[in-house]
Task: inverse folding
């Protein structure tokens, strides 16, 4: 039986294979496109992360600056408070020196005025003496007068030196004797002193 030659068989087989090859190429192209898109999204995400980190650093910097400004404001407030207290001390010293000069100029006033020691006290000294007599301790007096405890201690020392009284009970007795402590506050002051002694400084 004679062989027949299939002149278009190779072309037919090639045509039958082309759709599969084309499909593979299409899928490769699609995969490459998706890969490119994923890389783009990754790059965008990285950019957003860097921007977020930058904003966070800026926020931290602003917070640190605000904290620094707050600390500086507190320092200035403390310095202003210290200057005020120093000014008050200088005023007290000036008033005391002036009062002594007046007493030297007019000595009869001391002999005729039975309350002269009290009258010679400055307003702040009388205020602290009254608060001591009411049973307030150093910290309470400082908080009430908006001054430092050292300022209260300084005035108390000056009071004791001026009045020649060397303990707090003596100051209390003096305040009561000269009428600086009202009658209704004497019991309250006594209770406060007892409470301060039992609770500590």
Result:
């Amino acid at each position: 039986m004679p062989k027949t030659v299939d002149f278009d068989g190779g072309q037919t087989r090639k045509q039958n294979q082309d759709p599969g090859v084309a499909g593979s190429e299409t899928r490769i192209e699609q995969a490459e496109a998706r890969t490119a898109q994923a890389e783009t999204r990754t790059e965008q995400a990285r950019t957003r992360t860097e921007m977020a980190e930058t904003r966070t650093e800026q926020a931290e910097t602003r917070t640190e600056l605000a904290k620094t400004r707050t600390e500086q404001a507190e320092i200035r407030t403390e310095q202003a408070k210290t200057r005020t207290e120093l000014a008050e001390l200088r005023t007290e010293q000036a008033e005391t020196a002036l009062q002594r000069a007046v007493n030297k100029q007019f000595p009869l006033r001391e002999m005729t005025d039975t309350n002269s020691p009290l009258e010679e006290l400055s307003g702040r000294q009388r205020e602290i003496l009254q608060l001591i007599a009411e049973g307030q301790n150093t910290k309470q007096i400082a908080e009430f007068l908006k001054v430092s405890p050292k300022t209260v201690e300084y005035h108390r020392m000056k009071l004791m030196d001026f009045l020649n009284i060397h303990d707090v009970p003596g100051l209390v007795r003096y305040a009561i004797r000269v009428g600086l402590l009202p009658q209704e506050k004497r019991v309250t002051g006594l209770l406060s002193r007892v409470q301060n002694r039992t609770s500590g400084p």
